[in-house]
Specification:
Blueprint (H helix, E strand, L loop, with lengths): L7 H13 L3 H13 L7 H13 L3 H13 L7 H13 L3 H13 L7 H13 L3
Length: 131
Amino acid sequence: GKMMPQDDDEAARLFRRAAEQGHSLAQCSLGQCHAEGKGVPQDDREAARLYRLAANKGHAAAQHVIGRCYASVRGVSQDDREAARLFGLASEQGIAQAQINLGVLFALGSGVPQDDAEAARLFGLAAEQGL
C-alpha cells in the first residue's frame, strides 16, 4: 500500500490524548517526541517525566530509556544507582540493550558494586538475543 505522509504534530497530539489517559506506550512515545522535538518543542525534562510515568507502569522500553537518561544526565540529574535499578527492571523483561548497559555499570562499579561475573552474565544474556 501507499505510505501516508508522516505528520509529527498529529502523532504528538494523539499520543498526548492517550498518555493523559494513562496509556504507558503513548507516554513512552510522547516522551520520544519531546526528546527529538517531533511535533512538540524539544524538552528533555518533559521527555524524562513521560518516560518515568511509563516506566512506573512496568513499560520495559521506558524503563530502559529513563535509565539512559539517568546515566547520561538528560532531563534528570545523574543518578547511576537509579539508572542501574531501571536497567535491571528492563533487563528482567528481556531488553538486551538494558542488559548491556547494566553490565557496563557492573563492570565499572558505577551505581552498583563492581562485579565482573555479573557483567559477564548480563553481556551473555544480551548476546543470546543477538546483541
